[in-house]
Structure prediction request, 338 residues.
Amino acid sequence: MIDSDNLVLKSINLFPEQIKDSFEKCLTLTLPKEYQQVKNIVACGMGGSRFPHYIVKELFKEEIITPYLINDDYNLPGFVDNNTLVILSSYSGTTEEVLTVGQKAHEKKAKIIGISDGGELKDFLDKIKAPGYFFDPVYNPSGQPRIGFGYFIGGVIGLLFNLKVLNFQKNDVLSAINNVDIKSLENDAKQMAQKIINKYPYYIVSEFLTGVGNAIANQTNETAKSISSFRVIPELNHHLMEGLKNPKELAKISLFIFFFSKLFSSSIQKRFYITKEVIEKNNIETVWYELKGQNKVEQVFELMAFGNYLTMNLSSLYGENPVTVPYVDYFKKKLKEI
Prediction:
């Protein structure tokens, strides 16, 4: 049973407020005029500060009119120059990879902006006189980036509108935020968590839901301390299905969870049904979950909230602490010692 006073649960319940707060503030963020003249955008982040960019990029794949690349290591693409906008995303402001590429972007004379709650990233941006959105995480009492990623979702969408590179309606985003009844998702998420326990879940997504699959896999790993993967249709249809036979133990622990939408293109809908059939022919269990939102933005927000509840419940079933990340902390500590 989840304690109602749990900080993670409080943060999950405040998820829409995270999105709305950052969306509205980034819409009105003052940016240099030349930032609207960039020819490409490179978004830099790791973990819970990375997958929000992936969510937004896939959600608005057809509406973002400027090339938009996600960068998740210590190096920048060779094309980065003074016509590039580099977005530095780090919840804590201390992410090593982000700070490293930030310095490289500055040396390449790229235009730079940051999204963070402060830390070394804010110090860096202040030093080079670059703008940033520094949120006050009052709607994320857990303090965990993967639980407070609504700040990045709303912030990135608001920033893209601000830069005039997103060909979409602002009111439709606000409407989607207000229309997602996240509490109604809690019971379904709890039931799915009970199916996942002691299984290896493969989250199957496509099109505008692709980035959310990545987010839920990330949260399953960190929040529930449980292994997981996300896979994308149609790409998986070209290889993964032939890999289901061996090892034989695979069928015992695998669980394929299909996040299905009637808003998917007709070709993708057909592939979902047939892929499910192939998985079951290999004696592997499947779960089918259909999104209910009226449009793709609502469904993305819906699935993000569902994933929050799902992984929180799974954490509870495993008896794990959803807040701590001991091996990530250990890893960072060892890096500093070397």
